What we know:
By secondary structure, the protein is of the alpha/beta class. Among the domains are: about 85-160, Dna Ligase, domain 1 (2-Layer Sandwich), CATH 3.30.1490; about 235-290, Nucleotidyltransferase, domain 5 (2-Layer Sandwich). The protein is built from ten helices and 19 strands. It has helices at about 50-70, 105-115, 165-175, 185-195, 195-200, 235-245, 250-260, 285-310, 330-340, 365-380; strands at about 5-10, 15-25, 30-40, 40-45, 45, 75-80, 85-95, 125-135, 140, 150-160, 180-185, 205-210, 215-220, 225-230, 270-275, 280-285, 315-320, 340-345, 355. The strands form five sheets. A six-stranded mixed β-sheet has the order 11-6-1-2-3-19, with helices on both faces. The protein has a five-stranded mixed β-sheet with strand order 14-13-12-17-18, with helices on both faces. Strand 12 (about 205-210) and strand 13 (about 215-220) form a beta hairpin. The longest helix has 25 residues, at about 285-310. The two termini are about 30 Å apart. Residues about 385-400 have low confidence and may be disordered.
Amino acid sequence: MPTDQTITGLDIGTATTRCLVGCATDAGLEVLASAVRPSAGVFRGEIVDFDACAGVLRACLEEAAAAAEAPIAEVFGAVPNAQCRGLNSRGCIPITRPEREVTPQDVVKVMRAAGNIALPNDRVALHKIRGTFAVDDHHGVVQPAGMGGSRLEAEVHVVTGASTSVENLRRCVERAGCQVEHLVAQALAAALASLTEAERQAGVLGVNLGAGTTGCVLYAKDTLRFTRCLPVGGDHVTSDLAAGWGIPFEEAERIKREWDEVGGDGPDSVEAQGASGESLRLSIHRGRAVMRARVEETFEIVRRELAREGLEQVPASVVLSGQGALLHRVAARAAEVFGVPCRTATRCAPTGAKGAPAGPGWATAIGLALYGCERRAQVASGEDGGGPGGLAGRLWAWLKDF
């Protein structure tokens, strides 16, 4: 298959690197191949060893390319949660024409006014995502073109990344032999693959539980309202287990992963190797108590962040993605903390991605490929990223960059 027909999503995580190759069809994304490797040279979402990280990327990309029987020249990459922040910005313009009718040009003008914010030198805008509009005192307008009024307002959600980290990500991908076609915030990519339209309309909190960080996005009435990153993830759970049991980090990680695979069921104790090589029998009850405390603390931090923005009562449900979503009873913990139903994105891409691998850990890579399908459709049609767009009507409508 020609290179320009394939779409590649590359998710560089703290613990795992995933690559997914697909192509756009009339029915949506069709996955051709996928590859996964343990990450190297990455600490809490930051690249700390170029050579080690690039080596893993090169191996992962080569494996996926061989399985897809197509070369990979460009990728859609994920900017790790640790580097991303979100803020809401508003813009307003007067409608002074005698007929007082809002035109498509007015819509573009007010969106640009809302997105025109001054950023520090160490931040770069990754996404400027359109929200709702207001025409005079009529708020919550989705498409204002054609309406009458004297004042047009727009809200834009701006997601930024750390300039140095974003540039380092590009350089590392280039060192691995590829170019970056576009970068997407990790939590947004995961949300694209794991949240349904009904959930986004009703109000949903998407929580991407990674090894080094946790990313959160909140949608209400199909509009992005909130983006946050927490410097805590699955590795912190592992550290807590290692400290609580007095065993090496690697042993604690092995036991945690075994729980992930079997859902936490099993005997009351587990065998492990101590720091000096001795054989130990460890209490599963104690380990679960340690995990529960850390997980509940993480969700409590998210809840407080929502409350600070006045959004605590907005979510009607919670959806968990990322490998950390497989932790024992983590969905039940989230439901208790937030007081709403919670599910795990076991099967991602609710809009359809034929052949996509299962599991919440694949949410970001699948989301990147879905994003790539929609972005290329926009470019091919010559439509402005802020408009509704053909294929974009299904997915791009709630992730519009302009």
